[in-house]
Request: fold
Amino acid sequence: MSTVTSDCRNPATPPLQDLRIGVLCGGNSPERPGSLASGAAAAKGLAQAGLTGELIDVAEVPVDQFARSIDVALLALHGLGGEDGKMQGALDLYGVPYTGSGVLASATGMDKTALKTLLAAQHIDTPRWAELNPALSTAATLDMIKHSLGYPVFYKPVSGGGSLEAGVAHDQQQMTDLLERAKVHPYERYMAEPLLDGSPCTVGLIEIDGALTALPVLHVRTDREFYDYDAKHDLTLRTETCPADLPDGLTRQMQATAKRVHQLVGAHGVSRVDFMVTPGGRAAVLEINTLPGLSEHGNLATMARAAGISYPDLMVHILRSAFSKPAYLP
Reply:
């Protein structure tokens, strides 16, 4: 068991054992179940490190109530309202330090079209994309996809996560079905990009003693049509390799690219950058998660273990980053 008594390495960090730590989770986004799981795991990890974390479901306790009772917030939030800068802005207004990125980086990372625009401007490889205009008819949308992207395509919410409401369309009929299904779900904006023939990889990034550190690459294989919600939550539906069984040069390339993406959006403390790796060695950036899942068997924790970092120590590294932000972070 890891025990924390003090932190003399960063004089800006108060003694962690004296802090009232609020582990913010839950909320009302479609990703609420995953956030609750992250929060419970994080609170357990803090306890194993000798710290005390209070679970706070932000759907039940307003910010103006819990802001007065905690010294720092460890964010275990996912999805709309928690990962997109809104909670970060509220905590800034109340003067509560928090883990993860600030408002601007959170919003940019959550909006996949904004992120991909930045990536393209910096010549970082990312699949071509098209945001689907809800004002267009289904026929016009199908025509746009056919001529600008071609089939098959991968379809997903612009500001969603966990592969919720994502899908693959191999032809116009399947695309029509996805468009119809979207009308009854909470996401308002959707996008499409060419479906790459490859397997997903991810690179976790954490701040350790003030230095941004890239964790070993995690390589995922699944027999599902894509790495969907079920595969992400059922270990029997996927096979993970960490460190990834990939050429050293490709591994280093992805770690370096992940750092570039993190720094490009202005992320802080922790993030996870997802890639699609093709058999030919192309590693295309799909997205950045500025608040990656914190479950003990999730991607970030798996990569940390491969780097020799225990789960309680991972929580401590993340917590310390709340006190290493610049004085002003957009």
Summary: The first strand starts at residue 21 and ends at 25. The chain has three domains: 16-99, 108-125+197-321, 130-194.
